Amino acid sequence: MFKLEKTYEFKTKKDLVVEFSSENYGLSVVGWEKETSEFFIKFDFEKEENQDILIEDIVDTKYNKKKNTLYIKLNEPDNIKYMESRLELKVPHVTEIIAKTENGGISIENLHGIQTVTTENGAVKMDHVNGDLVCKTENGAMKLLDCNSDANLETENGSLKMKKCDGNFNIKSENGSFKLIGCKGSLDLENENGAIRVQDAEFSKVTIMNQNGMIYYEFTPIDKGQFKFENENGKIHLIIPDEVPYEIEARNELGGLHVGLEGNYDRRQEGNTHIIEMVKGSGKVEIFVKNRHGSISFMNNPIKDGKFKFDMSHISKAMDNAMKHIPDEYCDKEKILRKMEKAKKKLKNIKIPDMKSVMTEVMTDVQDEMKNVYKDFSTEEFKEKAEQEINEGISMVMGKAQEKVKDQPVSEQEKREVNERSRLKILQMLSDGKITADEAEKLLKAMEQRNGR
Asked: For the chain, how big is the Rg over CA atoms in Å?
């Protein structure tokens, strides 16, 4: 294994322009307070015997003082295999980067100025960059963090993540997934295949067009704006807080329309198109939604990672209250508290689909765990009191959970999964001898009738 390492120094000035080109090497660029620039390179490689490789054979650099332009080009010597490379460029904060690579990523951090990056098989990362961005990649992921920039982004087969960015964003993709968190400005996003998820959005103008994939968008309280969402094959799920003064028009051809917002709405049908219209307050937040093969849902509370939060404090308080009234001499409290904590863990991570069924299974698990707790009580009197108080807490949560999710939309895929779980549960009960064959048959028939089979 051979190593080459060198640091180049250039007496540059601010408003520097860097032109970088490479086939198989990535580059990391960082802005610093100095006006000079520094380029550090390190290679670990294998070469043929009796072959001399100089660093000048790989790296070609030139600084044009008059134009304040730094040129960096990486060459590919013959008969050499590179195992690892590290390229770091430090430049003045006000610098424009023009970078092009085939098989290498580009990372730019703490710069002011126009950044133009093109890669075929390499990731692109922008961190705390202010200025216009033009980024294009064929097979690489993009990431923008804390950027205050107008951006034109294009990707063919790569994901995009943006967090806390402010600007006017124009994004086009063929096969990519998108996640935008806490961004503001305006958004024009056009995608062919992939999911789009926008959380804590503060955009004032949005157009999202998708063909094959979900669209999930969370509004934050805003006074006005224009929003358009269109999809071909995939659901559209919008989270609209109560404070938003919206005017909504939703059109769907072959999918359900679910409204979980407060207030009345008008529903009508034009041919095969189902239409919903509703207005709240001034209606200055204009929202137009159109779908063909997928559901449209409007809710006022966000869903985090496919899960819904429920207040399980009734059960926890019931458990704690039961313990307060029990003298120490009647049980090993430390042992029982450990078992109660195990029971409480059963209440976490409850998913939305088939809430009644899932909640019932969870509560059954809790009750099973609590049976182990009851065994440690030395008197029947306190055992009965504890069991009664905890069961009342469970019943209260069950009622609140069912009421809270009765209008939650459930996809056809989720329904099929629920039905399969229910059927297997019935067969398991039959196998365990908890029900008879006749009872199992009646339960299966009732389930099928409920699903319209």
From this structure: 30
Q: What is the mean pLDDT of residues 316-342?
A: 61
Q: How many domains, the chain?
A: 2
Residue 63 domain-assigned (yes or no): no
Q: Please indicate, yes or no, whether residues 326 and 366 belong to a single structural domain of this protein.
A: yes
Domain extent for 431: 412-450
Same domain? For 394 and 329 the reply is yes
CB atoms within 10 A of CB 359: 20
Q: Is the pLDDT of residue 358 over 70?
A: no
Q: What is the 3-state secondary structure (H, E, C) of the chain?
A: CEEEEEEEEECCCCCEEEEEEECCCCEEEEEECCCCEEEEEEEEEEECCCCCCCHHHHEEEEEECCCCEEEEEECCCCCEEEEEEEEEEEEECEEEEEEEECCCCEEEEEEECCEEEEECCCCEEEEEEECCEEEEECCCCEEEECCECCEEEEECCCCEEEECCEEEEEEEEEECCEEEECCEEEEEEEEEECCEEEEEEEEEEEEEECCECCEEEEECCCCCEEEEEECCECCEEEECCCCCCEEEEEEECCCCEEEECCCCCEEEEECCEEEEEEECCCCCEEEEEEECCCCEEEECCCCECCECCCCCHHHHHHHHHHHHCCCHHHCCHHHHHHHHHHHHHCCCCCECCCHHHHHHHHHHHHHHHHHHHHCCCCCHHHHHHHHHHHHHHHHHHHHHHHHHCCCCCCCHHHHHHHHHHHHHHHHHHHHCCCCCHHHHHHHHHHHHHHCCC
Count of Cβ atoms closer than 10 Å to residue 413 Cβ? 9
Whether pTM exceeds 0.85: no
Average pLDDT value for the chain: 80
Is the domain of 369 the same as that of 421?
Answer: no
**pLDDT for residue 453 is more than 60:** no
The string of pLDDT tens digits covering residues 360-409 is 444 554 555 555 554 555 555 555 656 565 556 555 555 555 554 444 55
39: which 2 tokens? 């380029």
Residue with tokens 């065994």: 375
Residue 128 lies in a domain: no
Q: Examine the domain organization and report whether 396 and 324 are in the same domain.
A: yes
Banded model confidence at residue 335, pLDDT cuts 50, 70, 90: low
Residue partners of 78: CB distance under 8 A and separation at least 6: none
* Domain end marker among 404, 420, 442: 404
213 domain-assigned: no
